[in-house]
Design brief:
Two copies of one chain form a homodimer. Chain A is of the alpha+beta class and 264 residues long. Helices cover 33% and strands 27% of the residues of chain A. Chains A, B: Keywords: Hydrolase, Magnesium, Metal-binding.
Chain lengths: 264, 264
């Protein structure tokens, strides 16, 4: 398997998809709601996913694709080459802000993450990694994450998880918010993951993410030493929604033990 | 007073200050702490403020300047022409993320906000307004804000205010977090204000801001119909720290009455 060839191809279709999305802003945007009003989907999400699927299938028809919009075939194992794609992560930002949304792609070979991409469409910023080789932000290598103390950390966490909720002990989250240097929330999991792998945030947590939200990011994480797990400290379940944390390795365990604690 | 001339001059020094800051990233950054560890200041903040002051004083030595770093003279009234400047709003973002920080400038004439600027230094994005004439995002006019329902609103609010705190009833903030479509937090007041005036957020609240955080923004707000007050619904106190809310006019009052409620 020529990973370098797949890497070059993946970058090409990501840049091309980005150009199509930026152009599409000049046309009208049709916004529908999926399962609920907070889960927006637009015609451009769907078109971008279809575009990516067609390109990948004509590149190699044996590659399988898991996509957010479900336009691909049914995939029930990570055997062979599997692309996990999110054409637009951060749809609400896309619709309302016209920025802060990402194309996220992870390419797995027999269950092992090999190539990961997070592309900030409006900034044209690419975070990516090749397993065992390294990670880059555009043309610059991303460094291994340096240790950080919890008091100096900036954490990506949404206000929802500071309020009482059925997932985690919010009193402990309140302690965390008071302890750290700052918190941020951007409305795009892939953006927050990209910020963690590049040291712009020191951790990011969420209570329910899907494989396509994190597929690309977890592969980049490994190359810079960021630790990505669910809230039980296990590998993320790529066939269901799951809880998620990605953190600087110096605070991952402390966060799970003291501050981001699930109800039993 | 030739406002158009001042406007052109202000834009010139903002763009020039932005270029200087972007160049400075190639040099080392000296980070000190001011009053506490969360209040970072760098040599570039100071140099940028000095640069702006020198330019303004040589443009017109009668103009007065209130600056975050306190490098200007003591100003105790808004009589005459007063510039309220923040060379880098979002210093923590500046240091850690190398993005999401703003130059913010408001120009007041005898207490009336005449010209307002928020400049995203890394994106080179300028939000600005001329009182009574209009507001712009780069070359595009900013539209009057359209009504929004609270259920559909996206609100800029930091996790700190969802936790119990001595300023506002956090139980009501929790209700708000559950009611709205989403919340965001970017770590730069000027950035969040720029997002409200351009409809990317529907409101932003903070418990303690200084004049330079909001001087430019409140002038832009007026031109697009955004309402900016303190949490008592009064005009912001430009000589002290104060609470602050800026919101789409359709939800400003509802937010203050039901969700962002100060302790007596």
């Amino acid at each position: 398997m020529d990973l370098q060839l797949i890497d070059q191809f993946a970058k090409n279709i990501i840049f091309e998809a980005g150009r199509r999305i930026r152009t599409a802003f000049t046309y009208d945007l049709v916004v529908e709601t999926k399962s609920n009003a907070n889960d927006l989907v637009t015609n451009i999400d769907r078109e971008t996913e279809l575009f990516l699927i067609e390109k990948i299938k004509s590149f190699d028809s044996t590659h399988k694709i898991i996509g957010e919009e479900g336009m691909g075939e049914k995939v029930d194992s990570l055997e062979g080459v599997v692309w996990i794609i999110d054409p637009i992560d951060g749809t609400m930002n896309f619709v309302k802000q016209h920025r802060h949304f990402m194309i996220s792609i992870g390419i797995f070979v027999d269950g092992i993450g090999k190539l990961g991409y997070i592309f900030d469409v409006m900034r044209e910023d690419l975070f990516y990694a090749i397993e065992g080789v390294g990670a880059w932000y555009n043309d610059s290598p991303l460094r291994k994450l340096q240790p950080v103390k919890i008091e100096e950390a900036v954490i990506g966490i949404n206000a929802s998880w500071v309020a009482p909720n059925r997932h985690i002990h919010h009193e402990k989250v309140i302690e965390l918010v008071r302890k750290v240097r700052g918190t941020r929330s951007y409305g795009s999991a892939a953006m927050e993951i990209a910020f963690v792998v590049s040291g712009k945030l020191d951790a990011y947590v969420s209570m329910r993410l899907s494989p396509w939200d994190i597929g690309g990011g977890t592969i980049i994480a490994k190359e810079v030493g960021a630790i990505a797990t669910n809230l039980r400290g296990e590998g993320f379940d790529f066939f269901h929604q799951d809880t998620f944390i990605i953190a600087n390795p110096s605070i991952h365990q402390e966060l799970l033990e003291k501050y981001i604690v699930q109800y039993d």
